[in-house]
Amino acid sequence: MLSKKAKYAMLALVHLAKHQDDGPVLISKIAEEEHIPQKFLEAILLDLKKDGTLASKKGKGGGYYLIKSPDEVNMADVMRLFDGAIALLPCVTYKYYERCEECKDEETCSIRETFMKVRNQTVEILKACTLTQLMKSEG
Fold first, then answer.
1. Residues 14-50: tens digit of each pLDDT
2. How many C-alpha atoms does 18 have within 13 Å on its Cβ side?
């Protein structure tokens, strides 16, 4: 399940992408327009800044802005940043692999094979879903 943190991050990123030509956007404006608690949003934007997706400017005319193109920011990366593994089993995760304790043989495990397919299709869909795609969907 998608966490509130990841969902709010996606909402904030779409907001910033839509206002990319307007310069830095204040946290308070994003929070108000996207209905995100401001304190929660501050932590989310800091994580996105540390990740290299956003930058910030202090002082008058300050706020947050995208430093990556909206085509480069996909939902798989956002989900991994805030929620960790996308896969439903630890033995099929991309960055967080762990062998299942009860597994007799990963090579012949039909459960692993099924969940690997689910993970691969999910990641494919999420990687294809960029900020540009999300902005186009909203009109």
1. 999 999 999 999 999 999 999 999 999 999 999 999 9
2. 15
Distance CA 54, CA 135 (A): 17
Which residues of the chain form beta strands (DSSP E)?
A: 54-57, 63-66
* 63: β partners: 57
Which residue in the block uniquely carries the two structure tokens 């459960």?
111
CA of residue 5 relative to chain centroid, distance: 9
Question: What pTM value is reported for the model?
Answer: 0.88
- Give me the count of residues in the chain: 139
DSSP state of 25: B
How many C-beta neighbours within 10 Å does residue 23 have?
Answer: 11
Q: How far is the first Cα of the chain from the last one, in angstroms, to the nearest whole number?
A: 26
Is residue 76 scored above 80 in pLDDT? Answer: yes
Helices (H) and strands (E) in the chain, counts: 6, 2
Give all domains of the chain, ordered by start, each with its CATH number.
4-66 (1.10.10.10), 75-138 (no CATH)
| Angstrom distances, CA of residue 128 to CA of 71, 92, 95, 106 | 9, 20, 19, 29
